[in-house]
Amino acid sequence: MIAPALVSVEMFRVEHTYELLVARHQIHAVKEGARPRVASRVVFRGWQGQLPLDLAEKDQAVAGHIAPEFFSRAGEPRRLPAEYVEAIQAATLGSNCGSCVHSHFLSAPKAAAITDAVTGEAPVASVAQEQMAGAEVE
């Protein structure tokens, strides 16, 4: 079974300045026999974020446990979405990993949180899905 929704976390870094996009992509059912449509919604958009540490070299010990700080146009701190902080920290680690070609964070959703886009019912989780829930791939 294909999950009815997923969240993407994308980060771009130049020196100590970060851009962040957290988006939710969801499948919406349409008429019988027609291809379902995919709707995307921005959950969080951070621009000109700052992290004055050198996570690629001298501050590697905190890499993966810290995220950039983003501000509103008025200069007030913006809070990261609590449910995605771990993924954002992994993206921060990944954006500081030189010549990186591996995944820093991959997790399957908890079975109770998944509902079928067509029926609205929660599917039964397999043992493999339960073992993958929260798994980190490096």
Topology, pairings included?
Layout: E1 5-14, E2 17-28, E3 37-50, E4 70-71, E5 77-78, H1 85-95, H2 127-132
Antiparallel strand pairs: 1-2, 2-3, 4-5
Count all strands and give the number.
5
* Radius of gyration (Å): 18 Å
Structural class category = alpha+beta
Q: What is the approximate shape? A: globular
DSSP helix fraction: 10-25%
How is the biggest beta sheet arranged? Answer: 3 strands, antiparallel
In short:
This protein is α+β, with helices and mostly antiparallel strands and 138 residues long. It is 12% helix and 29% strand.
Keywords:
138 residues, alpha+beta, two-stranded antiparallel sheet, 2 helices, 12% helix, disordered C terminus
Structure overview:
The protein has 138 residues and is of the alpha+beta class. It has one domain. Helix content is 12%, strand content 29%. The protein has two helices and five strands; from the N terminus they run βββββαα. It has helices at 85-95, 127-132; strands at 5-14, 17-28, 37-50, 70-71, 77-78. Strands 1-2-3 form a three-stranded antiparallel sheet. The chain has a two-stranded antiparallel ribbon with strand order 4-5. Strand 4 (70-71) and strand 5 (77-78) form a beta hairpin. It is globular and about 55 Å long. It starts with a strand and ends in a 6-residue tail after the last helix. Mean pLDDT is 77; it is low at 122-138.
